[in-house]
Amino acid sequence: MEEKIKTLIERLKIYRIKMEEYEKITNEYLFELRKINSDLNKMNDELLQIMNEYYKKIK
Questions:
Q1: What does the alpha-carbon distance between residue 36 and residue 12 come to, in Å, rounded to a whole number?
Q2: Domain ranges of the chain
Q3: How far apart are CA 11 and CA 2, in angstroms?
Q4: Is the pTM of this model over 0.70?
Q5: Which listed site, 1, 17, 34, 42, has its alpha carbon 20 to 30 Å from 26?
Q6: Nearest to 23 by CA among 31, 12, 11, 34
Q7: Is the dihedral of CA 6, 12, 15, 20 positive or negative?
């Protein structure tokens, strides 16, 4: 009985460590995705500005 409990506790510890690692990786990916999104928004703004300038010229 005690040995089974010890085994379960060890397995839980391992799963906790894995979950912490996955959480860290997930947070890193989210950070990178936010950076990419920010860059894309800036690019979109620049493109809109270019299009507006072009539109003003052809009017």
A1: 36
A2: 1-59
A3: 14
A4: no
A5: 42
A6: 31
A7: negative
pLDDT in tens, 5-14: 999 999 999 9
What is the distance between the terminal CA atoms of the chain, rounded to a whole angstrom?
85
The string of DSSP letters for 34-51 reads: HHHHHHHHHHHHHHHHHH
pLDDT in tens, 32-54: 999 999 999 999 999 999 999 99
What the block records as the tokens of 5 is 């409990």
Whole-angstrom distance, CA of residue 40 vs CA of residue 47: 10
